[in-house]
Amino acid sequence: MTNNIIKYQSLINGELYENGNWISVINPTTNKIAGQVPALTKVEIKKVYESAKFAQKNWEQMPILKRISFLNSWKQLIIRDKLILAELMTNEIAKGTKAAYSEIDRTVEYIEYTLQEALRLHPESYTGDSWGSMNKLAVFEYVPKGIVLAISPFNYPINLSVSKIFPALVTGNSVVFKPATQGSLVGLHLAKLAKEANIPNGVFNAISGKGSEIGDSLVENEAINVISFTGSAVVGNRISQKSLKADLILELGGKDPAIVLNDADLEDTATKIIKGAFSYSGQRCTAIKRVLVQRTISSKLIPILKEKVEKLTVGLPTDNCDITPVIDQSTVDNAKKLIKDALDKGANCLVGNKFKENLMWPTIITDVTTKMNLAWEEPFAPLLPIIIFDEVKEAINIANDSQYGLQASVFTTNINSAMSIAKLLEVGSVNINDQSQRGPDHFSFVGVKDSGLGVQGIRPSLLAFTRPKGIVINWKTKI
């Protein structure tokens, strides 16, 4: 180890904390150590929950405008440290500098919108008249559920962390935050800023550790009221089995199809497919991960896709290339495995299939059939299969015959076709004539099947972290 390796501490009960045991975060571009974070133990995790539980009641009883004041101070520090956060993202997840700045700007807008929307979470009132109870009035306010465990992924380490943390905090919950290891430098820098913003002790806690050692104790603690997790379906399903009484909000994987009909605007369609499939090297749950194109126009669309993908720049995140190194070697190995299986079964490589350590050139595989693993498995890499269909019902069946159901796209100039197909697709959202995507952030974001559980967004998240509590007033008629 060299002395210049950056080290971040966890935040427990308002204090920056380390225990002398460290986890190394690897830079995907250089495969060298980008920094280190503490490897906490089960005993330390238990203490985190104790402090979060103790702090939550006082935070809940604080007026919402005062909570917002604390959170606005934190937001200002995020803006101040924009350059530092962007550099951390470039180093630990190989995100281009321009894209990193964009993510931070989007996150600041998310915070501002969330804090405003929280003020509009008004109580609801009901009378008992319609049930024959004339002298009865109920007022239901939204109260916090308690302790939120927020587990974020590597690919959007600021946006997908804040989208859990801030809705939970502004509604009066305390938060235990666990960022992915790749992304924990960013996550623990956010924690450092929370301390600087004087977020009350124990209200927000940020931890790090090896999932194999603390994973179960992290999600099984009886103090947890809500678990908000973004990551793989495998881990998400394990959380659903291990968690005890906690409400679950799970944002998992996807195999988002883009269905292209024979009357689509091919130039516009190709542009959006390439952006949807290859932004951030395809490492997005909402990335287009398979194209289903009608046979009659496949020979026209495929050359356009090839031309556009060959124009993508490949290289370093500091050069703002379109394609940068994927997160780790296992991602590369999985992509190679999927490509080999497809080629061995008769598919053809249109472009790509070139690798240099963690850097994978954008790859399009044609003549893919449903007998190939690439038709079904999520590569989380710049790898796009093209499947040809004849009848629209065939495309719908292929799209639906999947363990995933996050999003889909339909490209056509016929609104009747678009709406008819959209109604039949078993996904959370259908994008007509556009790529699958998470935003705008105030839209409801939901997956079905192995793509998730619960609803996110801005108002949906505020509701997910609260519960209605009623006060029923009864009186006797005196007049």
Side by side, the strands of the main sheet go: 14-17-18-13-12-20-21
Tell me, briefly, the overall form.
globular
Report the structural category.
alpha/beta
Count up the helices: 14
What's the end-to-end separation, in Å? 83 Å
In this structure, how is the largest beta sheet organized?
7 strands, mixed
Mean pLDDT across residues: 96
What is the rounded Rg? Answer: 24 Å
Q: Which residue ranges are poorly predicted, with pLDDT under 50 across at least 5 consecutive positions? A: none
Helix proportion range: 25-40%
Question: What's the structural blueprint in terms of helices and strands?
Answer:
Elements: E1 10-12, E2 15-17, E3 22-26, E4 33-38, H1 42-61, H2 64-80, H3 82-93, H4 97-118, E5 124-127, E6 136-144, E7 147-151, H5 159-170, E8 174-178, H6 184-196, E9 204-206, H7 211-220, E10 226-230, H8 233-242, E11 247-251, E12 257-260, H9 266-278, E13 290-294, H10 295-309, H11 329-344, E14 348-351, E15 355-356, E16 359-360, E17 363-366, E18 383-389, H12 392-400, E19 404-405, E20 407-411, H13 415-424, E21 429-432, E22 445-446, E23 448-449, E24 452-453, E25 455-456, H14 459-464, E26 466-474
Parallel strand pairs: 7-8, 7-10, 8-9, 10-11, 12-13, 12-20, 13-18, 17-18, 20-21
Antiparallel strand pairs: 1-2, 3-4, 5-6, 6-26, 11-24, 14-17, 15-16, 19-23, 22-25
Helix pairs in contact: 2-4, 2-6, 3-4, 4-5, 9-10
